[in-house]
Amino acid sequence: MGKDSTGCFGCFRFLLPSNAPEVAPDMSPGSWGPPAEVDLVPSMARPRVGSWASPVPSMPAPWGTWSTPQDDRHTVLTVSGLDEPVKVTKTPTSKNMATAQPGRLKEIGWYNRDGFKSPTQGFLVEQLLASPGSLPQGLSPAECKLQNEKRVDQVLKTLDTIPNATTTERLAKVPRRLLTQRGDTGQRLRRGILKGATIVFITTGYEGKRFIYERAHALGVRSVLIDSPTSWSKRLVDEGVAVKFIPIDMDQTSREVVKSCLAAIEACERDPAVGKVDGVCTFAELSVPLTARLAELLGLPGPTPEATDQARDKYATRGALTRYGLPTPPNCEITCE
């Protein structure tokens, strides 16, 4: 590469004046400038879970046949009825391709037993060449909100016809798109489903948490409270905030407490004042592992015991973070006093 106009950048030679000296670009190491600074950020190797592969084509043609023409045979198709005349040229690129393309074109009516034909304007042609074409515009935000409100009203009317259904049965009748939508409309639907649900609260905590159970009552939740016999929360039944209070001796061993709570919850289904339990929960940190085990034994939604055990143990929590490649500070377990 010298000063010859046919060398590098010769195609831009016309931009220079005719009397300009022959100048070649400076490609010497000195023209590179100072090396870029690179901040070395330590990274942790993360496990590669699963694998990904390109989807297997559903067409019978082999790979690469779209880009390797082998002969000049071609067929011209004229699409009528569009604003501008369009000609579609089919050029088979191999023997396999010539037999594969008709199968693809059958779907949109460009090929039949008699061979190729010129298709008329229709949905498939329009969507292929000018999508979205004449399809109507989507709903405006205001129209979408109005439509969702009407659908929510219909769903709530349907749920009113099955007052004895469990929350799970009620959820099964609600389209997920409505159930997960944001805003006041979605919240109104979710609260409508929650109304009438029976939820067991495992230990009620200190009296300052009274507002939780009052709010649950205001939302239509039928609360069952499990706590020690001397708990302040037993008054909530007399006040109409809860439907049942179940005293459990919390001085028992943890295993015995699990058995006692499980038996008490199962007995609720035979109590006409309570009925089938829809869920168990707690707002007391010490009772989270217990609640997780009860949910698992009863087949109700809830975190797994393994997850709650790790969350309650800082060393186990940091060990889990390390196993899954998440950053965590250096730590060690102290096993002696």
UniProtKB/TrEMBL annotation:
Enumerate the GO terms in the molecular function aspect: ATP binding; ligase activity
Matching InterPro entries, A to Z?
ATP-dep_AA_Ligase, BL00235/CARNS1_N
Keywords of this protein's UniProt record, alphabetized? ATP-binding, Ligase, Nucleotide-binding
Pfam families this protein is in? ATPgrasp_N
| Domain BL00235/CARNS1 N-terminal intervals | 213-302
Q: Give the species.
A: Effrenium voratum
Output this protein's name: BL00235/CARNS1 N-terminal domain-containing protein
Q: Does the keyword Transmembrane apply?
A: no
* Lineage of the organism: Eukaryota, Sar, Alveolata, Dinophyceae, Suessiales
- Is Nucleotide-binding set as a keyword in this record? yes
